[in-house]
Amino acid sequence: MADPKGFLTTPREEWPRRPAGERVRDWSEVYVPGALLPIVGEQADRCMDCGIPFCHDACPLGNLIPEWNDLVARSDWRVASERLHATNNFPEFTGRLCPAPCEAGCVLAINQPAVTIKNVECAIADKAWEEGFTPPCPPDRLSGRTVAVIGSGPTGLAAAQQLTRAGHTVAVYERDDRIGGLLRYGIPEFKMEKHHLERRIDQMRAEGTKFRTSTTVGRDVAAAELCARYDAVVIATGATAWRELAVPGRELAGIHQAMEYLPLANRVCEGDLESSPLTAAGKHVVIVGGGDTGADCLGTAVRERAASVTQLDIYAQPGSVRDETAEPWPTYPRLYRLSAAHEEARDLRSAPAADADARLFAASTLRFTGDAEGHVRALHLVGVDAGRRPLPGTERSLPADLVLLALGFSGPDLKDGLVEGLGLALEPRGTIARDRGFATNVPGVFAAGDAARGQSLIVWAIAEGRAVAAAVDRHLSGGSTRLPAPVGPYDRPMTA
Q1: What is the DSSP code (8-state) at residue 356?
Q2: How far apart are CA 344 and CA 299, in angstroms?
Q3: 333 CB contacts (<8 Å, ≥6 apart)?
Q4: What is the SS3 assignment for 78?
Q5: How many CB atoms lie within 10 A of CB 387?
Q6: 283-310 average pLDDT score
Q7: φ and ψ of 410, to 5 deg
Q8: CA 465, CA 459: separation in Å to the nearest integer?
């Protein structure tokens, strides 16, 4: 540790955001450009270099956090980048998108604000690109073995990069017209500008990874045919089967899934569309679901100039301090957190009916009602207790011209023909079954990421991509691998 007293003398300071009224007028990232590097060295100095760094265990990637904190504090950016990339293929993604379970596991967080690990990570990644510390790493020799990776989200990209660098010939199949999966069309531009994704794809191409876009395996290419053409197949399609809301009025026009809405806004940013056919402009918007996807819809609707936008969360409003009995350190606690989108809605008063920022807590949807043309016009809700039981006398309605369902995902999409075409076994909850080596019931076919784990965080997705790459490399090489496997298929986040 560069400064043994840094955690005592330096308060936590985060990357500042641009004023809400300014940033909602564009789609650029919400942070003040250039404002992170001047503060990140002192923030890294707050790291105590603990004898037992619980931040390692809190992060499924096993990031070497105290090591690169010390290197950043000493301004040794090149070595910091080497140590960061030793465990994480895409730190500029996680540094922007991960909710940072590592910070919840920071020892300093027992009685002080945690080290800004996520900000330090992002600073290292951006500095590495700026200084040219991330050149392509093509393999010294080719193995002669071939691998198909189905899906180009963080799991598929991580698996493909690891396997390419190990010397295998890898082709990534993506059903959309561009590479990136949810990183491309699910994550709004204001959370991560897509040039971060493009330069990683360029790096992977230079290393030898092949990409096949606009190709749905199971429809455009028979799944069995793919298995016959490659020595191994990795399924990393994600959990794209969205959850429904079975209440009266669901059939009304104007009620859409979040992942029908968000990709269109991203396509506007990509230049594919002049405006979204599902734009929130001038509409009263209600988002059902209190998670990150709902917050992404919120920030998007605010930028599209919605007349009002309210987010419903079925859980009660959490407190601002960790409940040490229910969620003791170092688990990730459920706290009241103010995302950039919620901050914007609060400051701009976008949701006049909300309890706090844009959210109505402990609220459950009863039904939708519409006009004579069959278009939704109101959402009727009721307050609920901790057991999600309706509370008498709490029924109310909200004006709603556009309703967005952000209720999460249950597993892979079974309609594309991949699961059926290969005869893959499924778990009772609808995810792809696999053994302790990530192998499915079909020889040579492996499954990783949300398609097998279920909906999870980006750090778990990348960790699974790295781990399945090790399993595939072992399979292809006859029993050994030098690739790291940070997680097993049955590993789970720390909980009380």
Answers
A1: B
A2: 8
A3: 104, 322, 323, 327
A4: helix
A5: 5
A6: 97
A7: -100, -20
A8: 10
DSSP letters along 253-308, please? Answer: BTEEEHHHHHHHHHHHHHTS-SS-TT--TT-EEEEE--SHHHHHHHHHHHHTT-SE
| 69: phi then psi, degrees, rounded to nearest 5 | -65, -45
Contacts of 121 (CB under 8 A, 6+ apart): 63, 68, 84, 88, 91, 94, 95
Biggest CA-to-CA distance, the chain = 71
Cβ–Cβ < 8 Å for 408, 420: no
What is the length of the chain? 496
Burial call 429-459: b when 16+ CB within 10 Å, e when fewer: ebbbebeebbbbebebbbbbbbbbbbbbbbb
Q: If phi over 0 gives left and psi between -120 and 50 gives alpha, with beta otherwise, what is residue 257? A: beta
pLDDT digits (tens, 9 = 90+) for 433-487: 999 999 999 999 999 999 999 999 999 999 999 999 999 999 999 989 999 999 9
C-alpha to C-alpha distance for 64 and 72, rounded to whole angstroms: 13
Distance CA 356, CA 334 (A): 16
Distance CA 146, CA 153 (A): 20
Phi, psi (degrees; rounded to nearest 5) at 285: -110, 135
Strands, E assignment, 308-401: 308-313, 359-361, 363-370, 376-383, 396-399
Beta bridge partners of 221: 217
Q: Which of 147, 195, 194 is nearest to 172 (CA)?
A: 147
Q: How many angstroms separate the Cα of 421 from the Cα of each of 226, 227, 229, 237, 370? A: 11, 11, 15, 15, 41
d(CA 218, CA 222): 5
For residue 1, is pLDDT > 70? no
Is residue 93 within 8 A of residue 154, CB to CB? The reply is: yes
- What pairs with residue 327 in β-bridges? none
Given a contact cutoff of 8 angstroms between Cβ atoms, the answer to whether 43 and 13 are in contact is yes
Cα–Cα distance, 383 to 27 (Å, whole number):
34
Sign of torsion over alpha carbons 437, 443, 448, 451: negative
Provide the token pair at 458: 């980006």
pLDDT exceeds cutoff 80 at 496: no
421's CB contacts (< 8 A; 6+ apart) are: 218, 222, 223, 224
- Residues contacting 359, CB < 8 A, separation 6+: 290, 310, 311, 312, 313, 317, 342, 351
Alpha-carbon gap, residue 258 to 186, rounded angstroms: 9
Cis peptide before 330 (omega within 30 of 0): yes
For residue 73, pLDDT over 80 is answered with yes
Backbone angles phi, psi at 418, to 5 degrees: -70, -50
Number of separate helices (H) and strands (E) present in the chain: 19, 15
